[in-house]
Specification:
With 344 residues, this protein is α/β, with parallel strands linked by helices. The protein has twelve helices and 13 strands. The protein folds into three domains: 131 residues, 4-hydroxy-3-methylbut-2-enyl diphosphate reductase, catalytic domain (Cobalt-precorrin-4 Transmethylase, domain 1); 85 residues, Rossmann fold (3-Layer(aba) Sandwich); 84 residues, Cobalt-precorrin-4 Transmethylase, domain 1 (3-Layer(aba) Sandwich). Helix content is 37%, strand content 18%. β2, α2 and β3 form a beta-alpha-beta unit. The longest helix has 16 residues.
């Protein structure tokens, strides 16, 4: 079996930052309870590992005892959640991905300018719930072109669309094209709202998958960007499966498959990818080909509140900073495996 390992894959800069926030808090506040509002990222293994270390995840800030520490997840929150946290005198650490914050700021700005905002995304996703909360009277969510006829539009010349950051670029373009056809004067955001990591991982799958017999995507089912990767592989004619970890691998999926693409959603840890690859190498006499499609070198700083807490304890935040580079095939994760590297 030829195992095509896509680069980029796995953690993006926003996920690295959010996870690092909780890691740092556990280190510098070992005796304080740490709460996180919503899953810090959409991956059950990441969440489970933090639960094992004593972190408590809540879906309402009323569950956090007054005066305690709460971290807001990477997906962002509405102003109402922030207000509720302030009312409970909570120490808040905002781990919202900066690219999500960008969409929030756009929503606030356009609402103040009197625009109606059509937010392309999944209505029940935490990111969309948070963005919508910034201007609830100005925002309508569009999940599909079929939603367009039911929109309430005051002035078609004062419309703008924004998008959820983790959408499929293909799906988003279908909806955006339909919006432009229905409302020719609709305004676009200054730059694409779909994040660089989502776009890069999707492009890698779109480029590699046509040459493969199967695509295995490591990620949780509530991870929007992971689900999109499976859909993109299928759209280019490659059967695809989403699995949280190697324990979910069904032998019938890979029977007779000679070229298997392996990738991971932006919230999936690399050790889960490595476990899957080791299984394929061992059971199918596999060889790994690392296919480099894009190089990523993006880093987000930890939130200012956490920096202040670290300095108060005499810790230099810069000394604890983690620089993110491409995932490497290291022996401690992958063992000794047959390996080639190619660039596209």
């Amino acid at each position: 079996m030829r195992i095509i390992l896509a680069n980029p894959r796995g953690f993006c800069a926003g996920v690295h930052m959010a996870i690092d926030v909780v890691d740092q808090l556990l280190d510098i506040c070992p005796d304080d309870p740490i709460y996180v509002y919503h899953e810090i990222v959409h991956n059950k293994h990441v969440v489970g590992r933090f639960v094992d270390r004593g972190v408590t995840f809540v879906e309402d800030v009323s569950e956090v005892p007054e005066g305690n520490i709460v971290v807001f997840s990477a997906h962002g929150i509405s102003p109402a959640v922030r207000k509720d946290a302030d009312a409970r005198n909570l120490t808040t650490i905002d781990a919202t991905c900066p690219l999500v914050t960008k969409v929030h700021m756009e929503a606030i700005r356009y609402a103040k300018q009197g625009y109606q905002i059509l937010l392309v995304g999944h209505a029940n996703h935490q990111e969309v719930i948070g963005t919508r909360g910034e201007a609830p009277d100005s925002i309508q969510v569009v999940e599909a072109p079929e939603d367009i006829p039911s929109l309430y539009i005051d002035d078609p010349t004062k419309l703008v669309y924004l998008t959820q950051t983790t959408l499929s670029t293909d799906d988003a373009e279908v909806i955006i094209s339909a919006l432009k056809a229905a409302f020719p004067e609709i305004k676009s955001p200054p730059s694409s709202d779909i994040c660089y990591a989502t776009t890069n991982r999707q492009h890698a799958v779109r480029q590699i998958a046509p040459d493969c017999d199967l695509c295995l995507v490591v990620g949780s089912r509530n991870s929007s960007n992971s689900v999109r990767l499976t859909e993109i592989a299928q759209a280019v004619g490659c059967p695809a499966r989403l699995l949280d970890d190697v324990s979910e691998l069904d032998p019938s999926w890979i029977a007779g498959k000679e070229r298997v693409l392996v990738t991971a959603g932006a919230s999936a840890p690399e050790d889960l990818v490595a476990s899957l690859v080791r299984k394929l190498v061992t059971d199918h006499d596999g060889e790994i080909e690392v296919r480099d499609i894009f190089e990523e070198d993006v880093e987000f700083a930890i939130p200012a509140t956490l920096k202040r807490m670290m300095r108060d304890q005499g810790i230099d935040p810069n000394e604890r900073r983690i620089h993110i580079t491409r995932p490497e095939i290291t022996e401690d994760l992958y063992g000794t495996v047959p390996l080639t590297v190619s660039a596209s």
